Amino acid sequence: MAKNLPRTMKAIGLYKYLPISDPNSLLDIEIGLPKLQKNDVLIEVKAISVNPIDTKQRAPKPVIETTPRILGWDGAGTVIKNGEKSNIFNVGDEVIFTGDLRRSGCNAQYVALNEFLVGPKPKNLTFEQSAAMPLTAVTAYESLFERLLLSNKDAGKSILVINSAGGVGSVATQIASNLGLKVIGTASRKETIDFSLSHGANIVLNHKNDLFPQLADNGYENGVDYILVNYDPYPYWDTIMQVIKPQGKICLIVDSSGLVDLKPLKDKSVTLASESMLTKIKYNTEDLFKHHEMLKEISKMLDNGQLKTTLNKILTPINAVNLKEAHKILEEKTSIGKIVLTGF
Amino acid sequence: MAKNLPRTMKAIGLYKYLPISDPNSLLDIEIGLPKLQKNDVLIEVKAISVNPIDTKQRAPKPVIETTPRILGWDGAGTVIKNGEKSNIFNVGDEVIFTGDLRRSGCNAQYVALNEFLVGPKPKNLTFEQSAAMPLTAVTAYESLFERLLLSNKDAGKSILVINSAGGVGSVATQIASNLGLKVIGTASRKETIDFSLSHGANIVLNHKNDLFPQLADNGYENGVDYILVNYDPYPYWDTIMQVIKPQGKICLIVDSSGLVDLKPLKDKSVTLASESMLTKIKYNTEDLFKHHEMLKEISKMLDNGQLKTTLNKILTPINAVNLKEAHKILEEKTSIGKIVLTGF
């Protein structure tokens, strides 16, 4: 039974796309509850996580919204209502979720989402620990299993995870390590190096310096089998072309800031995959149901300890002041793991 | 028993890298026989095939060779001697072979090759029909099975083969068609369209016109699952980004003449693989033995009719005049299937 729903809810939204230093870049607002589509669940939001996709969507541009834009595509909460044809979850189920960029996000007390973008919350984790995970874990999962096509058969092979202390990097490090791969992370500060080692990296190189000599010093003078680039690939292009092994595979999750030369790919017959967890959602692909299955699997791995939450900072409550603070940290690109906001 | 070998052999070689219109671009010469390395077989060359790699290697550049450079990495012949540790073939075996760019090629009466670059000649084909196939068939095979990772499970899916009447295109068309894929070829002249249809293309689009509306007219308005680009991808970049399906895979076998924007890859989580049949050879990869296995499989498919030779033109004998003619046709980019030279 759905509880009686309020007519309005608190949310953090924007009308103008402004620098985060501008007081109006994100605003506390009161708006109507989102409308349920037939395959949706309505979720009462308990904790939200902030990702680079939020800051990219909020980035300054000359657009004015007539209804407030609500960001946020990552969090945890409780199902409070089912859409007409939604039947995976029951009212009262505790869940984790990602989101759909074309719809209002979860920086609000309630969010409506296609049930395939929702999975069970790990029982042994808090809402905050859980909220840190969905978007980055799905991205890491798709990168490793659907793009690089890793499996247990790859045990013993090597993967270079560039920016391994970030959100996706620290989940990918854990999953690759569980598969038995040698994980070579990259970071630059003591805290990020330690964070990455604690998530299963075998070694962590300093990405402020040239990576090739560091790889050679660690016995990888013949290169690595796989590379996951959790950063603009443009400044790394020559390096990744140099250190990938013949017939190796590279996965990019961040847009390149410049045009690239594809020639070096051919000499080594390299495969370059690009990953966005939004693809299945935006194009409503036939395998969209796998998004739900991945969230279920991720939840199980978090419960049985195969995966640790990458939560590193909690801000409370969920309001414009704290959300601006989180965006600011992300834009400075110095964050470690994930930032979560909790409580209204 | 090896027959008595002559001390010298006929070959076609070059000292200077000149336009094909220059009489000295390729010369009839008489040189010593190639030296056998321990894993080599010595092959008496019966027929050779010409590929874009030959014209690229011969392309004008300010380099002068002190010993003549012999091109040619594709052909058929008879094993006449084994290297110390070579044991796959017996003297007298009829074989097909590719080649190693770092060594003297097969535009000569004899060629020495690592035995992994050699496979059995199809019994039901002539030397000429056989010589047309090794390099393009290995490239097509690796493109489809090792880069695009196609299998019988992909029956019913769609593959766009750009330039489907060329050497690799016409083999790839046959293999993809055998797997049950819908093959959409591209060509521009009546002869090339017919050639492509006769090799199994379901439809052939005109690559002189925009491909997207033609795909839409044929029921592919939502794009294709796979693309094999047997042409400079640069002028096709926007088109292939537009017509590839979400999570689709593209394989390139030709270098891009310009820098490209990787951004569109991410929106659809596209995988872009690059294929060169020289990679395993140049880097002496652990799976180099697969090169031999592929040649064996290709030979079997040619014998049992799963694959037809793409031989389209025979020039005889193997001499500088005919080789220049073949290079000239390839450089004009109007060739259909393969050109083979035969007989000394």
UniProtKB/TrEMBL annotation, chains A, B:
Alphabetical list of InterPro entries matching this protein: ADH-like_N (IPR013154), ADH_Zn_typ-1 (IPR014182), ER (IPR020843), GroES-like_sf (IPR011032), Lipid_raft_assoc_Zn_ADH (IPR052585), NAD(P)-bd_dom_sf (IPR036291), Quin_OxRdtase/zeta-crystal_CS (IPR002364)
Residues of the signal peptide: none
A single GO molecular function term of this UniProt record: oxidoreductase activity
Record-annotated Enoyl reductase (ER) domain positions: 21-341
A family per Pfam: ADH_zinc_N_2
Stretches of the chain forming a coiled coil according to its record: none
The family this protein is said to belong to: Belongs to the zinc-containing alcohol dehydrogenase family. Quinone oxidoreductase subfamily.
Protein name as catalogued: Zinc-type alcohol dehydrogenase-like protein SERP1785
Organism field: Vanessa tameamea (Kamehameha butterfly)
